[in-house]
Amino acid sequence: MLLAPKGIGHYWKTHYADKTFEHLYRWNTFDTAMLIPYFIVMVILAFYGIHRYQLVWLYYKNKKNAAKWDEPEARFAEGELPFVTIQLPIFNEQFVIERLIEAICRLDYPRDRFEIQVLDDSTDETVNVASGIVARYAAGFPGMDPQPILYLHRTNRYGFKAGALDEGLKVAKGEFIAIFDADFVPPPEWVMQVIHHFAEPQIGMVQTRWTHLNRNYSFMTQVEAILLDGHFVLEHGGRSRAGVFFNFNGTAGMWRRETIGEAGGWQHDTLTEDTDLSYRAQMVGWKFKYLQDVECPAELPIEMTAFKTQQARWAKGLIQTGKKILPRVLKSDQPWHTKLEAWYHLTANLSYPLMIVLSVLLMPAMIIRSWQGYIQMLLIDLPLFMASTMSVSTFYLVSQKELFPRTWYKTFLYVPFLMALGVGLTITNTKAVMEALFGIKSAFARTPKYSVKKKGERSQARVYRKRLGIVPWIELAIGCYFAATVWYAITTENFFTVPFLLLFVLGYWYTGLLSLLQGRFERRGTTGQELHEKPYPVGI
């Protein structure tokens, strides 16, 4: 409105107070064909947005049910701690494997009750690096006693991560199985904080909260951290406190071995084998715990291509798991609120293809709605917008307030970029969701980790950088389309829509340009690693 040539008062009078052409608008076939799908999409997105508000409500309503690491319902006797196996599934992780093994070997747990399995499916220099590090820690050296660590290398890679975990389980001695991905650095007290919660015989899995080693590496990693914090505070927190199903995140958690067996073991027919096993275990009666106050640091992707790879894998995997598991959940005798929460959880990524539809319809719908009058827009469009869009900012602001009560207000600066990044992921994640819906088997690209914490430590990044394809160009083209809608909105003085449209421009251009710039650096160096063709690809 500040762009209005004759001031805000004149703009309001001519656009909203002038009754000259009132009641002259008439519906027609074209408007109907545009607005019906537009409102269907908006209503569906609004339901998913309302669900975010519901998670916030569940989180606070059931605050008394929050599990604390130092308040287990029961404890193992000091001399009767159970045997724990630590599994470290890795694939081409030469830059982070030493950091991981060092952290695991410094865990504070009796060595006669403890073993480490390095489950290596690598096809590059990681094989020599990892085997050498394992041999060194097994033999011991000044400052480090010999460790109960075993190196297992597979060449067939059957089942990928799920297959590696299953192979390790066959020779594991532990009654309890902790799992850490290659980029995690658990603190020494982690096992002791978790193990006593299994003194309750019905507990089958305990998940802990991810934190971020390189949160301040770049603006992008700060945004990524906020996105993950929302998941680990409000999604896990809200679901676990309400007593409904939630999932193991594939790492930084511990399983009761008996639970894995009773649930049917690790299966590799989805990309998210962790969520798949989680639902199967809870369906047969096991209870899960989430310890929000137990932190386990990990590395965030530092490049847009790596981040999009990670997000697409999660999006596709959850839809695959939904297709596999939801029919069983809905037919079960679980409470209706558990079934409803499972539905929202496993189908949430359907919002990405809906965002594509919304992107196509937004400009014609905006033109049509401007002719129908501001009362209808305030009564219909505004509530839908508040439900579908504003819930995103509320969700992440609340999660930051919980984690950082003194500095959470700084998150306001990131909110537009959080929303824009969500928009920018639409193309990549829509492709992943559609592949899952139609059962398309696709190549899998792992999320690279570089052991970086600050700027200037990325020279090794091109070794594992991914191919770009046409997606960044599509993102830039769609960004240009929305730039045209911004221009149209300004020229027609429809200023209320401009901030919303700018989010689309920023999101698509940001993800597209970053992907292309990183690809330019790749062409100067190595060509990167080839993608691995995998039936039902499952990776680290």
TrEMBL record:
InterPro entries: Nucleotide-diphossugar_trans. The keyword Cell wall biogenesis/degradation applies. Keywords: Cell wall biogenesis/degradation, Glycosyltransferase, Golgi apparatus, Membrane, Transferase, Transmembrane, Transmembrane helix. It is a multi-pass membrane protein. One of its GO terms (molecular function) is glycosyltransferase activity. The chain crosses the membrane at residues 35-60, 350-368, 374-399, 470-490, 496-517. Pfam families: Glyco_tranf_2_3. One of its GO terms (biological process) is cell wall organization. It is found in: Golgi apparatus membrane. This is Cellulose synthase/poly-beta-1,6-N-acetylglucosamine synthase-like glycosyltransferase. It comes from Granulicella arctica. The lineage of its organism: Bacteria, Pseudomonadati, Acidobacteriota, Terriglobia, Terriglobales.
